[in-house]
Known about the structure:
This protein is mostly beta strands.
Amino acid sequence: MRAPLLVVIACAWACGSRTSDPPPAAHDAATREVAAPASFEVPPPTDKVLGIGRDDAVACAVHASGGVDCWGRFGFGKIFATPRRIPGVSDAIAISTRGDLVLRKTGQVVRLAGDRIEFVPVEGIANVAAFASGASGCFLQRDHSVTCAGSYLANPRTIPGVDDAVSVTNGAVVCAVRPSGEVLCAEVPSNPAEQAPFKSVPGLGRVRRLELADQSGCAILESGELRCFAIAGHEVELRETTTYDEKVTGFDPVMFKGATEISVTQRPGASGLASPPFILDAVIAGRVAHWDVHGSRWLDKLVDAKQLVGECALRAQGSVACWGSNRNGELGLASTIGRARRKPAPVVGISDVAMLALRTGVSWAVTRQGKIFAWGSVGGGTPTELPLPSGAKPATSIAVTKGGNACALAGDAVYCWTRETPTFALLASGIRSIANTYEGVIALKLDGTVVSWKLDKESGYVPAEGPRLEDKQLPPVPARVIALVGMAWPCAVTADRQVFCGDEWAKVPVDPVDRISGTFGACGITGAGAVRCWDYNFETKRSTPATPATPSPLAKVTDALDLGLGDSDFCIVRAKGAVWCGMGPSGRERLVLASGAVDVEVGGAIGNNGPNREHGCAIMADRTVMCWGGNFDGELGDGSITYAEQPIGLRL
């Protein structure tokens, strides 16, 4: 049996803020109104849509005329944010759930080419009556048998054991529904010579509609009830005794009763009952109920849905509406794609900020009133307040881990928030200061000792029971600590402005510094405004001064006031609040803000997708925030988000 995969979530990083308040300074970019999304109500197309398909990169629609429109990121990397007609087929009658395969009137299957925008034939597959829902690769033949092919649609073979299927769906396994409502499932063998016949699955009852994702599935029963279940690896085993509505907070089985259409969208890398591994959408009398890790809700605008695929709906009047991710333009609306922006944009709806904490895909802020806000992969494209428990003191700092879990210091208490249990809960008391590590939080206690907690498990997974995991007492620091900095390794700044790093607190041979920042490497600002950088050797457990290539922008700086380091980018606040940013300690710098900044942070994560994935934010002198750089998850906070909570109508 294949071991279940763990949830992989993007991460966030935190660093302290300056406490001084310079005189107010003007922004370099004027505040602008955030454009509203395109209207949901769009005229029905003259060429009615018959079917839709969508995955995490591309979406397509088949028209009554036999033409096919697609939008999103195609195989060669180019994004088309509005629908365009794809050449190569004019007699299409159906499309696969993922949108990559089209069925022609002849029973032939064609697919989107990986290197050009057109459809190409799939050899060896003919007489197809319908596609399997879920993952591509299986087909219902005109004789009601089931044929499956490999991941590259090679070596198609008929799965023995059923010749009267009325529908077929596949994920980790392939399942067929018979006219009687009986469900039969089989493993799809990787070796074409192997045979894995269909077997009846007990315990589901009479099924009217079945949908599978990779490790999960949902079935509409003839009684009108909806049952969702886990699939145990590639083996044919449906865990009918432990359904999701029994185990997962936020699943409302009453809301989903009476569904006529369902869509199960797999969350990448997710599995198991403790963390919902899929997103569920269901049509109930034309309305759409949506369930994800945040709970159940209605998509209020949509009242005439007929078919669901992924997070798109075919409407009764023949048009298409989509919601959810728009990372690759799959919403068909260009204005909501998160692009990398060089020019800073003001964060909407937040002011009086005291501290920022950034990581790839997410931005966090603490205001001077002690309120906590997040935007990006947490909170959406505009800041959302995440309150501390009743009775907690105002927050003074925040630390964010690789797995996207955050801890806040309020008074002498630490409260932690996780993506699996998205509320702040008490972790520890008696704490003076905190900082993030990649997988947890490190804390300076009131008695001067240092302790750390590992919040993230492997691959960033945190169980639902809360954050109290693997506390670790670190050895004493050689001198009195006044601040901690977490990065790939912990560092402590002492009262005499010396730096000690690593689990054994080895002294760093650099000039006395006032502030430090870093990820893999680290840099500090001396009292004279110079920047000194060093690396950490995990074998010797020692830090050594870095010797970046010449010329080095950081080596030439003598007026640094604040700095932030990501994995690829750095940013420095210099005289008069100017912000300069560049790639790496030896990269070319550029002016981002001419004046007015008092604090700067850079978001970055291990294994990110390059410098365009990182973003930067600066606290301005008037305590508002300006952001620039990558915006794939809405982390710039200007409202140009990559996720739509409500449906967006497409003009086809």
